[in-house]
Amino acid sequence: SWLRFPTDYLGQILAASNYGKSRGFYPTPLELCRLKWEILRGSKPGDIRRRSVYDPAAGTGRLLMVASNDCLQLFGQDADYLCCLICKINLAFYAPWFLLPKNLFSAV
Question: Is the alpha carbon torsion for 57, 81, 63, 47 positive or negative?
Answer without folding.
Answer: positive
